[in-house]
Design goal:
Shape: elongated
Structural class: mainly alpha
CATH topology of the largest domain: Four Helix Bundle (Hemerythrin (Met), subunit A)
CATH class of the largest domain: Mainly Alpha
CATH architecture of the largest domain: Up-down Bundle
Length: 217
């Protein structure tokens, strides 16, 4: 084979390899792991909301635990059960459903400048008890936990599992999206923040139970 042909072939190979490496590098950058500030924000929300729940159920008598302000109102026991069920329900949604969906790094890059504002706005909406929501059947309470201690044990284990995932994951959570309800598209980070915000929302519900006129003293 003539020397010129060999050089042309070699140069073409080098160019193709360079393009391939550039594409691979760009893909890796776009699908990078969870950023430090996102990881810390999620952990802070999870730890803060955990303390709120544990404080809310601490020292309750069985009468207080099971008290209902009305036939269609949840007791603190039922609220706690709902929070615990949602921990696994939402956590599985993030780690299984969302992270198995195709990544969209282009969308993630376009949303990046507004992420902090969107995160906070979503949490504010979740905490707003003036807007009611219907719980999915899978996380409607069924009277499982007879004492606060039982609920605390299960909740703590579930929350520890969530926190461990956040501490160790290398998943590119910002690159994956889902729509949990009409008009809201969230990324994986916001899906995990939803666990904490949902927790906080229903701790407020527990406080409402405690403020009812017939609540046992």
């Amino acid at each position: 084979m003539p020397r010129d042909s060999i050089e042309i072939g070699y140069n073409r190979f080098v160019k193709i390899a360079a393009v391939a490496l550039t594409i691979a590098f760009a893909a890796n950058v776009a699908a990078g792991p969870l950023e430090k500030n996102d990881r810390e924000r999620i952990l802070t929300e999870l730890q803060t909301s955990r303390k709120q729940l544990l404080d809310a159920v601490s020292g309750l008598t069985l009468a207080q635990w099971t008290y209902k302000a009305g036939p269609d109102r949840w007791s603190i026991a039922e609220v706690a059960e709902h929070i615990i069920a949602a921990e696994t329900y939402l956590g599985t949604m993030v780690t299984q459903q969302i992270m198995r969906a195709p990544a969209d790094p282009g969308k993630a890059e376009a949303r990046q400048p507004k992420n902090t504002a969107m995160d906070e706005g979503f949490l504010v909406q979740l905490r707003d008890r003036s807007k009611k929501a219907q719980a999915p059947g899978e996380i409607v309470p069924k009277g499982i936990y007879k004492t606060p201690a039982e609920a605390v044990m299960v909740f703590t284990a579930a929350r520890d599992k969530t926190i461990n995932y956040v501490q160790t994951t290398q998943d590119a959570l910002r690159d994956h999206f889902f729509a949990p309800f009409p008009g809201a598209e969230l990324d994986g980070v916001q899906g995990l923040l939803m666990i904490a915000g949902h927790n906080e929302r229903h701790v407020l519900q527990m406080l409402e139970v405690k403020q009812a006129a017939g609540y046992p003293k």
